[in-house]
Amino acid sequence: MRLRARIATLLLLGLLAPGAPSPARAQDAPWPSRPIEFLGGFPNGSGVDIYARRLAAPLSQALGVPVVVNNRVGAGGNIASDHVAKARPDGYLILFGTAGTHAINQTLYRRLPFDVLRDFTPIVHLGDVPNILITSIERRPQYRTCMDVINDARARPGALNYASTGNGASTHLAGARFATAAGLDLVHVPFPGQGGAVTSLLGGQTDLFFNQTGPAIPMIQQGQVRGLAVTTRQRVAALPDVPTVSEACGLPDFESTTWYGVFGPPGLPENITRRLNEEILKIIEEPEFKRWLVENQGIDPPTIRTPAEFRAVQERDVARWAQVVRDARATVD
Questions:
Q1: CATH number, domain at 233?
Q2: Considering the entire predicted model, what is its pTM?
Q3: The pLDDT value given to residue 16
């Protein structure tokens, strides 16, 4: 009777419920065994969002579980980053980060709720992302070359402005670096994301926009905007007729590129980090995906292979962008 009573009590507590995994079995379940959330910090239609959604489908096939893309927008990507920094390191929440969220913001924000190096596990570098100086063909037809912009800006100090997708974004700092290098007085006009910046440019409220190549390329192809110069040392394969800033603007050695990358919470197990790294790099190396990356997004495929190499790039860029932020006198809080 005592044994029956003991069994009944355990069943009542759910400890012996049919199909209920024991704590040991749940902990030992192979990864992944349920959907993975791929979290971004920027709006739908941003370069980050475009890349994440293109990557999610083949990654889901490779891992055998759904990979769902969600965005927690705000604070220059810090809201999403903070969520991942405080998440369980079980491999079911990973972050689509950028040089902005994981290098620039360390200096741009006086107080962050996390440390961009200590509080994340670098997983894989996704490629280098150029910016391109664009202007509205309809609203600013006089700007046919980069030198047209520079000459006008020098003749009218403070009269020209440039849109960005937010303080400290690559679209802001590329413009700030350009203004400093050319000795121009340009007014920065930040917007909360891609939509507002594009609308202001096409509507004539802003003169210039150092947009990322991914969102900019379709606008150039559709004849909405003119691409005047790319911020890379070499021309972008997707836009072979658009010169570099060095070529078109008389600014030798000018370069302003960022990167995309995948991060996990701190303490992400090495086997999960390695599996994600390997599967994502396999996808990027597939000819169709690589062609999309280069020809549609203007992004150079990654040459950085390992998480350790990615961490070294991140550490370098925290220091490099800190100087750019200080030179631009950029701050958020």
A1: 3.40.190.10
A2: 0.83
A3: 38
